[in-house]
């Protein structure tokens, strides 16, 4: 399936004229490993320029395989990927010039210094040395005072920042962050989110995989859910919340009930808290929530209300529901 | 061509050499000096000349080749194996670099280091024995071609190796017998006919023989055949490397 364009960009416009084509287009991508494991089963996905797309999925869902194919680390078994209109296999030089990758594993050369390893990454991408830019990146990531420190002496959080600095050193237009905040503390995680926001403000397209639903909810424009090598959905975050987000109305009763009254059976109610409350599930996307009718019917039955509260399902609930339904 | 990438890989590898100066440079110089003291000065003084060349000088080209081969294979293999081992290979594979550029960077650095150490060994040898170079250009040609070929050979071992044991098995178990039985310390004329024939299947014989001819104009094999064999070996290594990158063998899933 192909996900709709982010808010504000009509998805049904042709990919020419004033409407820009997606910066990354993944078409029917498959990957079979030599072990026989099928990591991707015909994945299609468009990623629009300048957006932040969060890919959610359990371990082994195919997130890293998909990213690795786009970046050139894994060879696809079938399908096609283009970046800025260029094929990632045939025109690898053009595509890799604009793609940045921050891998999931903390893979760094232990005996190299921070500034050297960052400068090395810039050179690998064909960019001339730019000490001023490297300094700016290291300062922004609070690594400047560690610039001459060997990587093996850095903490896990700092190594994660070095990996990000390496990817930023060659000024990518599309940045893949594979589990960028895995194993980092809360403060650093918030700093990372701010950094992602600043990068987006400069026009960088960001695709991040994460296990932290909160992270996707906080910073993404669109959410993709992938499981067992298939994309289950790609939606604008707000639309997704609205579309799948269920709300729950809890009515605390002054007098407990032993069963839901017959006259209210049409409302799909459940007794909660040992009969002290009535719980009503409703869909926010529906034209009518049924709340008015329910409250009127309760009043007719002479039920006295003590309190009323509502609760909206989080992205985590949606994710668990989606992935759970697949099992 | 991504010149900046080649420069980056080359500089990175040369920086690694500087960080390990003792084991990179001092160690081969000391071990080669020991060879010259034992085989050149001590035993060599009691060995008669071979084809008019004093024994100490006769073994010099072979010892330089021994060091050159070890250094080039070691550096070529380690340079690419280490990123595979640590996982930093992702950066090379996802960079806008062609196969040729990767090979030029890694193999160029390994060959440069081999040539620097080979030159130091040559200078060390001249402290112990009188060395004249009859054909300097041909000597340099053999020197450079051997360095590049065996650095490439090492690079292939580095890609093939899945652990440190495999990484070391060829440099430790295959190369020394080939060098020692390839006429480094004797002329194959001294061997019985059967072993002379067997020696002709040893590629190192051609390297040592051709290299020695460029010094003293004495050889076990026609020097041009030696040169052709070295070029053919280089061509074979290039072909295998191209295949490795085309198929992603041991590099990509």
From TrEMBL, chain B:
Record keywords, A-Z: Cell membrane, Membrane, Transmembrane, Transmembrane helix, Transport
Keyword Transmembrane helix annotated: yes
Residue stretches spanning the membrane: 21-43, 55-82, 103-125, 137-160, 167-188, 224-245
ABC transmembrane type-2 domain sequence ranges: 19-248
Signal peptide start and end residues: none
Pfam families assigned: ABC2_membrane (PF01061)
Annotated GO CC locations: ATP-binding cassette (ABC) transporter complex
Topology of the protein relative to the lipid bilayer: Multi-pass membrane protein
InterPro entries assigned: ABC-2_transport_permease (IPR052522), ABC2_TM (IPR013525), ABC2_TM_bact-type (IPR047817), ABC_2_transport (IPR000412)
Major subcellular location class: membrane
Protein's cellular compartments: Cell inner membrane; Membrane
Lineage top rank: taxon: Bacteria
Any GO molecular function: ABC-type transporter activity
Family: Belongs to the ABC-2 integral membrane protein family.
PANTHER family membership: INNER MEMBRANE TRANSPORT PERMEASE YADH-RELATED, TRANSPORT PERMEASE PROTEIN
This protein's name: Transport permease protein
């Amino acid at each position: 399936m192909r996900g709709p364009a982010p808010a504000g960009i009509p998805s049904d416009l042709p990919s020419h004229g004033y409407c820009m084509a997606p910066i990354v287009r993944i078409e029917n991508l498959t990957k079979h490993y030599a072990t026989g494991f099928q990591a991707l089963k015909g994945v299609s996905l468009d990623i629009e320029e300048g957006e932040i797309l969060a890919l959610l999925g359990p371990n082994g869902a195919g997130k890293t395989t998909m990213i690795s194919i786009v970046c050139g680390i894994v060879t696809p078994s079938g399908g096609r990927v283009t970046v800025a209109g260029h094929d990632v296999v045939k025109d690898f030089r053009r595509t890799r010039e604009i793609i940045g990758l921050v891998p999931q594993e903390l893979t760094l050369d232990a005996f190299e210094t921070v500034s050297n390893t960052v400068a090395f990454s810039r050179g690998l991408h064909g960019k001339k040395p730019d000490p001023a830019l490297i300094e700016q990146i290291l300062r922004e990531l609070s690594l400047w005072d560690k610039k001459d420190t060997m990587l093996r002496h850095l903490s896990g959080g700092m190594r994660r920042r070095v990996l990000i600095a390496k990817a930023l050193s060659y000024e990518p237009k599309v940045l893949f962050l594979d589990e960028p905040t895995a194993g980092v503390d809360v403060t650093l995680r918030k700093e990372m989110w701010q950094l992602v926001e600043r990068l987006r403000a400069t026009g960088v397209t960001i695709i991040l995989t994460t296990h932290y639903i909160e992270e996707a909810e906080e910073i993404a424009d669109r959410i993709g859910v992938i499981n067992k090598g298939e994309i289950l959905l790609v939606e604008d975050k707000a639309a997704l919340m609205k579309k799948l987000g269920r709300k729950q109305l809890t009515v605390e009763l002054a007098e407990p009930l032993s069963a839901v009254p017959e006259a209210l059976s049409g409302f799909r109610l459940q007794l909660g808290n040992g009969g002290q409350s009535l719980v009503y599930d409703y869909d926010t996307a529906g034209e009518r929530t049924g709340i008015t009718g329910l409250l009127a019917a309760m009043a007719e039955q002479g039920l006295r209300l003590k309190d009323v509260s509502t609760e909206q399902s989080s992205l985590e609930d949606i994710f668990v529901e989606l992935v759970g339904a697949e099992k | 061509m991504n010149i900046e990438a080649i420069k980056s890989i080359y500089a990175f590898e040369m920086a690694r050499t500087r960080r390990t100066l003792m084991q990179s440079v001092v160690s081969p110089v000391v071990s080669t000096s020991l060879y010259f003291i034992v085989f050149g000065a001590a035993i060599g003084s009691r060995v008669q000349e071979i084809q008019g060349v004093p024994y100490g000088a006769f073994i010099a080209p072979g010892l330089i080749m021994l060091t050159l081969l070890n250094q080039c294979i070691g550096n070529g293999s380690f340079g690419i194996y280490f990123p595979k081992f640590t996982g930093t290979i992702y950066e090379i594979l996802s960079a806008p670099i062609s196969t040729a550029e990767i090979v030029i960077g890694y193999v160029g650095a390994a060959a440069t280091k081999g040539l620097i150490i080979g030159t130091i060994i040559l200078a060390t040898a001249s402290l112990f024995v009188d060395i004249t170079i009859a054909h300097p250009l041909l000597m340099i040609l053999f020197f450079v071609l051997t360095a590049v070929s065996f650095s490439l050979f090492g690079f292939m071992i580095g890609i093939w190796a899945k652990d440190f044991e495999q990484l070391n098995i060829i440099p430790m178990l295959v190369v020394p017998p080939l060098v020692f039985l390839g006429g480094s310390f004797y002329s194959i004329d001294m061997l019985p006919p059967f072993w002379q024939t067997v020696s002709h299947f040893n590629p190192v014989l051609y390297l040592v023989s051709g290299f020695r001819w460029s010094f003293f104009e004495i050889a076990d094999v026609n020097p041009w055949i030696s040169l052709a064999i070295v070029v053919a070996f280089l061509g074979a290594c290039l072909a295998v490397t191209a295949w490795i990158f085309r198929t992603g063998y041991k590099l990509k899933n």
